[in-house]
Amino acid sequence: MNINERIALLREDMRREHLSAFIFPTSDPHLSEYTADHWKGREWISGFNGSAGTAVVTLKSAALWTDSRYFIAAEEQLKGTEYQLMKLKIEGTPTIAEWLGSELTDMSDKEVGIDGMVNAASMVKELEADLRKRGGITLRTNYDPLSRIWRDRPAIPDHVVKLQPTEWAGESTQSKLARIRKTLREEHADGMLISALDDIAWTLNLRGSDVHCTPVFVAYLLLDSQHTTLYINKVKLTPEVEAYLNTEGVGVEPYEDIVKGLKDYFEYNILMDVDEVNYTLYKTVKRQIVEKESPVKRMKTIKNDCEIAGFRQAMLKDGIAMVKFLKWLKPAVEAGGQTEVTIDKKLMALRAEQPLFCGISFDTIAGYEAHGAIVHYEATEESAALLEPKGLLLLDSGAQYQDGTTDITRTIALGPLTEEQRRVYTLVLKGHIQIELAKFPSGISGTQLDVLAKQAMWHEGLSYLHGTGHGVGSYLCVHEGPHQIRMEWKPAPLVCGMTVTDEPGIYLEGRFGVRIENTLLIVPYKETEFGHFLQMEPLTLSPIDKAPIIKELLTSEEKVWLNDYHQRVFDTLSPHLSAEESEWLREACSPLI
């Protein structure tokens, strides 16, 4: 069944329900960034497989909203369908409510459907108010057409849950629960519903494999002042995990009983993060709701000593794999036959040789030349470009190790480059270095640092629309918030112990793209009469290609940073490499004069 046939099937169902439109988000009941196949409804109805986007289908039209990372990919994937691409943050692009207001003008049934189980309470309430202003459009939230029309829909995953040893977690579950309850008391809340899957995994020191590349499991965690209950499909629990949960004082109930659990909740009030709890569960609660951010969200972003040690070990292993890969790459390309897919497989195989490897942390982005300009490009056997000994390869990849999660991008010269490629590469490198040179007061927002990554490229009339940096989980989600470095205002503070990436880029459609990324740890800098100042230490250990650099564009300070970074990479990795690999790394890390 092709996409247009699926749309036709949906419209038949919409007519039976007297709906004029239906909205499909990219989320599951836990509002996850990456979802299990069972909840990939937006992809099923539109054909667009990016990690961010919303599809809307009316009885006569269809549109898909996504951000700049996916503009090129979405245009390609939506070809031959009814969908009109709506480019977020581009002037003239209507909001979903604005578009529906114009599309439904002549409709007799001005009711829009949205599944309340897979949409955040905050989003639904905002959309409901916005639609009401546009000709009295109403919103229905208790209907999921996919349950009827998606006939081969994958089941909800039921993979086994595993313990995350305290050796890597660094804190017991009982200690974490005590800290959470202390924060709840400070917020005058008697309990809370933890819905985000990574928050649940972190709190319970458990990991799973229900979601591709992300070691989480499908569940809810409900706390009151005395009790903790995990709502989960019990087939996921081994006797060892069941015994562990019992020891930690965590009760277990079936996953589907969460609605009953919320109805039976007996405390005076309950904290709910309306950005993380879906609308259906939010409306189920009959007690007073304290609408506050989940305290777990910020707790897990500040890494303890064991987690930091784990990150360092994971980055060491990842660096070894990267050096072996980079040493192999250019000779392999010169010998011929390498594609974007084959190099991805090679890198994964090298990572898999490392201890505690548990898989990749996201699907590798290997973009050669023009494909490098597609920010979240994912090569297939059909689309994969043949690599030649010229031009640029953008390689964004990462791994899950039981002791840490990695995320690294390198842009590599495979041979001769144009002057434009060298200039763009150097501007991106300057932005990358400026972030890592930053010194800043504790508690500022990443928004206040974003300009450092873009200042040099702005002088050339160049920029990028994606974020400059995001948090990274401790053997958890590769994208962890709420803190970020980006142009849009994000008030989450940057504090000591957080991880954050540094990944500026420039993308020239149809030509090439450049991105350079390290994962960083926020560490102390100095105490002064003006407070506690911080800086960022690179955790990532891998050489940055010097071949494309226009040396004259780098300041003396930037050259010193690059040379110091490369010396650290060599000193840390070389004892773990063969003599031949170490000699290759010595040259790759030689000083830029």
Relative strand content = 15-25%
- Helix share, percent: 25-40%
How many strand segments? Answer: 28
Largest sheet: 6 strands, mixed
Counted by DSSP, the helix tally is 19
- Rounded average pLDDT: 97
Task: Describe the overall structure.
The protein is an alpha+beta fold. It folds into three domains: 3-149, 3-Layer(aba) Sandwich (Creatine Amidinohydrolase, Chain A, domain 1); 162-293, Creatinase/prolidase N-terminal domain (Creatine Amidinohydrolase, Chain A, domain 1, 3-Layer(aba) Sandwich); 305-586, Alpha-Beta Complex (Creatine Amidinohydrolase), CATH 3.90.230.10. Helices cover 34% and strands 20% of the residues. It contains 19 helices and 28 strands. The strands form nine sheets. A six-stranded mixed beta sheet has the order 4-3-2-1-5-6, with helices on both faces. It has a four-stranded mixed beta sheet with strand order 8-10-11-12. Helix 12 (279-284) links the parallel strand 13 and strand 14. Helix 14 (305-335) crosses helix 15 (340-352) and helix 16 (419-437) runs antiparallel to helix 17. The longest helix has 31 residues, at 305-335. It is globular and about 70 Å long.
In short, what is this structure?
This protein is an alpha+beta fold. It has 19 helices and 28 strands.
Notable features of this structure?
single chain; 593 residues; alpha+beta; Creatine Amidinohydrolase, Chain A, domain 1; Creatine Amidinohydrolase; 3 domains; 6-stranded mixed beta sheet; 4-stranded mixed beta sheet; 19 helices; 34% helix; globular
